[in-house]
Amino acid sequence: MAEARRLADGISRAAARLDRVVTGTLDYVRAGREEGSALTDLGGIIRDIAAACLPSGARLTVEGELPAVPARPVEMDIVLRNLIDNAVKHHPHRTPTISVTYRPGAGGRAHVVEVADDGPGIPPERRDTLFRPGGTVAGEERGMGLAMVRRLVDGWGGTVDVADAPGGGALFRVAWPG
Q: What CA–CA distance (Å, rounded) separates 89 from 84?
């Protein structure tokens, strides 16, 4: 009976992994196809993501004002949710301190959002492949999230990059015109 339960649990975990891969692939293919643009309430999106993604013990701070910005709300949610969720998933104890910062860029005609965490960071030699479909830092699961982030931000005419956060961890910078 215990052996049957162990096998059933293994099958269930494999099915869940497959579901995540298929869902991630479909999301990647659909990314950037939403028509039109709107003003997006960054503060509202961050609050929703924090409520849904942050486990007990994790902290999220906001630095600066979070204005409404020109971006499709669903796409902005995907971008920020992936960055915040990755900070949680890749933190050794799954209790990161995450900082989200907004600032206007390029004479007020551009927007910059930074998401920094206090996790292990991303080794420089892994940064080139990080945004490709299947790219991952952890090595165990092939990710689509950051590939989707790059595709969406590219569609906005923007850029996304990763650097070392001050004091350790990763810092993702998303910049787009508007």
A: 9
Residue 124, amino acid: P
Residue 158 φ then ψ, to 5°: -110, -170
The values of phi and psi at residue 47, to 5°, are -60, -45
pLDDT digits 0-9 by tens, 136-170 = 665 555 678 999 999 999 999 999 999 999 999 99
User: Residue 115's closest CA among 146, 90, 145, 87?
Assistant: 87
